[in-house]
Amino acid sequence: MPKLPADLLQKRLRTELDMCRKELPRYGFDVSDPAFCCFPVTIRVTMRGVPGPVLKEGGVTSSSTHRFTMKITDEYPYHKPIVIWETPIFHPNIMTPEDGGFVCTKLLDEWSFNANLLQFIQGLETLLSNPNSDNAYISDSCVKAAKYFSKRPWRPPAIIREKSVLKKPRVVSSHHPGHQK
């Protein structure tokens, strides 16, 4: 498999990680080697504001904070990142950490040289919010989630895209119809 020259790979990964931090400001990114010199590099991602199903006290509820790791080899971008889920999940396409944390998604199969980490993470957001019961992993937790979601479609809360800052309303004009000075 072809490889990018080390300096181009390092520059590309720094650029893609900066793009992720800019476009996904609520997320946390912890990089094992920020200089991208020693491969494989592990990027631990804390995804915030993206609802995903979890099993809690025998019922299905939503969690909006998730963690996963992406391992990137020196064959990137010709070779896709390896993703391992780290937090509790109830999903037919994402194994629980106890089952290995593997993520079953077409975006892994359709990875190409032109794809980038931001697109990849946004694809994981979509997968997380849209369980596909017809394409479940064959693990106990995934099969159980597939059976559940085939009978009860998942309707997650909206994905929170940016920080919400509450501002006090300001009066722009004290003159409006019916108002006397």
Based on the model shown, name its key terms.
single chain, 181 residues, alpha+beta, Ubiquitin Conjugating Enzyme, 4-stranded antiparallel β-sheet, 4 helices, 4 strands, 21% strand, elongated, disordered C terminus
Structure description:
The chain has 181 residues and is an alpha+beta fold. The chain has one domain (6-151): Ubiquitin Conjugating Enzyme (Roll). Helix content is 26%, strand content 21%. The protein has helices at 6-23, 106-109, 117-129, 140-151, and strands at 28-31, 41-56, 59-72, 82-85. Strands 1-2-3-4 form a four-stranded antiparallel beta sheet. The model is unreliable at 163-181 (pLDDT under 50).
Outline of the structure:
The protein is α+β, with helices and mostly antiparallel strands and 181 residues long.
Sheet of most strands: 4 strands, antiparallel
Order the strands across the largest sheet as they lie in space. 1-2-3-4
Q: What is the third-level CATH name, the topology?
A: Ubiquitin Conjugating Enzyme
Count of helical segments? 4
SSE arrangement:
Layout: H1 6-23, E1 28-31, E2 41-56, E3 59-72, E4 82-85, H2 106-109, H3 117-129, H4 140-151
Antiparallel strand pairs: 1-2, 2-3, 3-4
